[in-house]
Amino acid sequence: MSQETRTAAAGLAPSVRLVPWSEEDAWLLRALNAPELMGHLGGPETEEQLERRHRRYVGLSTDATAAGRMFRIVLLPEGRTAGSIGFWSGEEDGERMYETGWAVLPGFQGRGVATLAARAVAERARAAGLHRHLHAFPSVENSASNAVCRRAGFELLGERDLEYPPGRPMRCNDWRLDLLGPGPATAPGPVAAPGPTRER
């Protein structure tokens, strides 16, 4: 049974379902654009930047040839939208790979939502089959998102300097999940409130 559809078990976090990003999801980008959620990513984006991001997300989720997908995270069993997550093609150090990023609304943080969503998106990336590895690049200062990477089964490769947004240096941790290896572990354990990771 996939991580997206499993029922909640005693002592574990709720379940999540990944819903492909749609035209109606622009409100979620605005809700996730709060200063407290964007602190590790250079601060809130302008309305124009949000509109470009929304168009990109819709394109990823509606174009059958797109090398990635964006999703709305839905918390089960209550069916409420909890955040966003996705995966897309990128390149680092000459390696073609998938990158993932997520953000969880404040009211849903600390409940294991990001960990379950990261495992679910890894299943989607594995099924897409274009690249062997899935990477995440949270800021070294973003302890919550780094904890999500660890709990979702990613391996820490080390620190690196990236730019996000373009022109803004950011010291990141490079986490990697081998999509050809065994699936991620299933028990999330205690989870801190995750902030967003880098999204291109």
Per DSSP, what share of the residues sits in E-state strands of 2 or more residues?
25-35%
Structural class: alpha+beta
According to DSSP, the number of beta strands is 7
Low-confidence stretches: 1-13, 185-195
Tell me the Rg in angstroms: 15 Å
The strands making up the biggest β-sheet line up spatially as 1-2-3-4-5-7-6
Q: Major sheet, described briefly? A: 7 strands, mixed
The outline comes out as globular
Q: Topology as H/E string?
A: EHHHEEEHEHEE
State the helicity in percent bands: 25-40%
Number of helices: 5
Alpha-carbon distance between the termini?
31 Å
Please explain how this structure is put together.
The longest helix is centred in the first third of the chain and has 16 residues, at 47-62. The chain has 200 residues and is α+β, with helices and mostly antiparallel strands. Helices cover 26% and strands 30% of the residues. Residues 1-13 and 185-195 have low confidence and may be disordered. The chain starts with 14 loop residues before the first strand and ends in a 22-residue tail after the last strand. Strands 1-2-3-4-5-7-6 form a seven-stranded mixed sheet, with helices on both faces.
